[in-house]
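In the design runs reported in the main text, the only information available to the sequence generator was the tokenized backbone. The following block is the verbatim input for one such run; it is reproduced so that readers can re-run the procedure and compare outputs position by position.
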């Protein structure tokens, strides 16, 4: 029996040596040390032994077991170490490789221009306000001195939602809404950016949906010269200090007098070129002194208060600054177009 145990021990050691994976090693352990293993088998036959032999066989069996266990532990530690080394090797990172390029988005050019214009007016003491895009006929027209059947309504073909609700055709209704909230007390000094809608056919310079920024300044003693000063400061901040403005008489129902504002052409510096249609000037916005009727309808006393207002198209300002020749580029979102504004 002693001989058999020795053989088993040798066999086990050989198999441990050959086991190359943790799984194979575990199989060896189960095979030799498990409940159904050959050593247990040998011990079962001990009953037939003499009292003298029994302790010797028992002792040998324990020795063999312990030895096998020891070798198993050693080998297991060795295999684990090897596995860890292989894992580290496989997962090692070459820090000298170039990194993957991460595609970064950017603000849409129109968002950037709106924010830039807002910032300029904030610097001039204006507050930024917004109003609804689905507007009532009252605020979009009536409160701006455009009663039903007024011919000037035709200047802005509209999308009606119901008989007295429409997609606003201009940001001017925010003027009336804001003045109402002030309950007849100035100053009101706001700019209002937002989307507007007109029933126009889209082409290089027209879009059925575009952006405007409205401005309104109502207080005691506001004069036309204030309007001119603010607009000149704005234009020079936006386009550059070398640019100037001029005012031409115009008509808007909500202002009296009304003006069209031109900025000197930055391409030819007044010489005349294709961009300014050989006039040296580019029309950029509409403005004027708030009509007394408009002040009155929104709760301001025109004897006590006066104000100026202006409205501009954001796309036009963006196109002029960045030399964009088609308004549709802003809305078709060609990534090659948008990518150019990453740093703008
Ligand atoms: N609402 C006008 C338009 O869409 C632009 C405008 C002109 C706004 C004169 C004003 C203004 O506030 O005073 O054509």
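Verbatim output:
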């Amino acid at each position: 029996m002693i001989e058999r145990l020795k053989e088993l021990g040798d066999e086990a050691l050989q198999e441990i040596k050959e086991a190359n994976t943790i799984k194979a090693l575990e199989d060896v352990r189960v095979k030799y040390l498990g409940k159904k293993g050959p050593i247990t088998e040998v011990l079962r036959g001990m009953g037939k032994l003499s009292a003298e032999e029994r302790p010797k066989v028992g002792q040998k069996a324990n020795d063999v077991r312990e030895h096998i266990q020891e070798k198993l532990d050693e080998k297991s530690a060795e295999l684990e170490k090897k596995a860890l080394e292989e894992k580290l090797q496989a997962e090692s990172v070459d820090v000298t490789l170039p990194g993957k390029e991460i595609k970064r988005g950017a603000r849409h050019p129109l968002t950037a221009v709106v924010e830039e214009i807002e910032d300029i007016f904030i610097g001039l003491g204006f507050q930024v306000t917004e109003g609804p895009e689905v507007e009532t006929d009252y605020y979009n027209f009536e409160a701006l001195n455009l009663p039903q059947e007024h011919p000037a309504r035709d200047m802005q073909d509209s999308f009606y939602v119901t008989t007295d609700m429409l997609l606003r055709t201009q940001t001017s209704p925010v003027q009336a809404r804001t003045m109402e909230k002030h309950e007849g007390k100035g100053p009101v000094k706001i700019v209002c950016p937002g989307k507007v809608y007109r029933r126009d056919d889209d082409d290089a310079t027209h879009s059925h949906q575009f952006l405007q920024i409205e401005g309104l300044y109502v207080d005691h003693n506001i004069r036309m010269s204030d309007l001119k000063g603010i607009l000149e400061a704005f234009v020079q901040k936006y386009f550059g200090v070398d640019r100037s403005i001029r005012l031409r008489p115009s008509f808007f129902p909500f202002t009296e007098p009304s003006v069209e504002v031109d900025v000197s052409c930055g391409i030819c510096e007044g010489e005349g070129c294709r961009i300014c249609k050989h006039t040296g000037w580019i029309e950029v916005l509409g403005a004027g002194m708030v009509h007394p009727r408009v002040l009155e309808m929104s709760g301001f006393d025109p004897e006590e208060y006066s104000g100026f207002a202006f409205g501009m198209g954001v796309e036009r300002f963006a196109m002029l600054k960045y030399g964009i020749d088609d308004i549709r580029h802003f809305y078709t979102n060609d990534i090659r177009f948008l990518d150019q504004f990453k740093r703008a």
